[in-house]
């Protein structure tokens, strides 16, 4: 809602812009490796919803070299380990939406979603009201994950 109320114009690529900003709870970048970084989803499905993003701006997997693809998977695994320790989820949704037609909100910069899941985490609010309810703020989520990283 803050985004809409302040009428902020989105940059050309929010992931590329995030790379130019400091790692903090405002920017939501949790970790940077040589080729990828981890960022909280600003509009999460559940608490702990993170994304692993290559630093290279590419829309499809085939345009990333094998080392970047491998690093995406290694850092995704690290995210799962950290999220298990922090949130104790019962499962995960992990994946990429490649292309706008496949549901990619940011289709020009490929990224991996890691979404912790619990039994009953989809309630009438999200199913019928198309509204997400989270038990903690993004700032709290950021700090919890950062402390466990």
What brief labels describe this structure?
single chain, alpha+beta, HIT family, subunit A, 5-stranded antiparallel beta sheet, 32% helix, disordered N terminus
What can be said about this structure in brief?
The protein has helices spanning 2-5, 14-19, 66-87, 124-127, 138-148; strands at 29-32, 36-40, 50-54, 91-95, 112-117. It is of the alpha+beta class and 149 residues long. It has one domain (13-143): HIT-like (HIT family, subunit A, 2-Layer Sandwich).
Structural write-up:
It is built from five helices and five strands. It is α+β, with helices and mostly antiparallel strands and 149 residues long. It has a single domain (13-143), classed as HIT family, subunit A, CATH 3.30.428. It has a five-stranded antiparallel sheet. Strand 1 (29-32) and strand 2 (36-40) form a beta hairpin. Mean pLDDT is 86; it is low at 1-10.
Helix-strand blueprint:
Layout: H1 2-5, H2 14-19, E1 29-32, E2 36-40, E3 50-54, H3 66-87, E4 91-95, E5 112-117, H4 124-127, H5 138-148
Antiparallel strand pairs: 1-2, 2-3, 3-5, 4-5
Tally of individual helices: 5
The CATH architecture assignment turns out to be 2-Layer Sandwich
H/E element sequence: HHEEEHEEHH
Distance between the termini: 29 Å
């Amino acid at each position: 809602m803050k985004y809409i109320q302040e009428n902020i114009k989105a940059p050309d690529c929010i992931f590329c812009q995030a790379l130019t900003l400091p790692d903090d709870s405002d920017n939501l970048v949790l970790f940077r490796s040589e080729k990828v970084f981890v960022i909280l989803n600003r509009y999460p499905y559940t608490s702990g919803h993170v994304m692993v993003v290559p630093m290279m701006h590419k829309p499809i997997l085939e345009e990333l070299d094998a080392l970047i693809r491998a690093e995406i998977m290694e850092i995704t695994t690290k995210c799962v380990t950290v999220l298990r320790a922090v949130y104790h989820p019962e499962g995960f949704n992990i994946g990429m939406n490649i292309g706008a037609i496949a549901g990619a909100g940011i289709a020009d910069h490929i990224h991996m979603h890691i979404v912790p899941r619990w039994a009953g985490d989809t309630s009438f609010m999200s199913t019928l009201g198309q509204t997400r309810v989270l038990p903690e703020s993004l700032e709290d989520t950021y700090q919890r994950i950062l402390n466990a990283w």
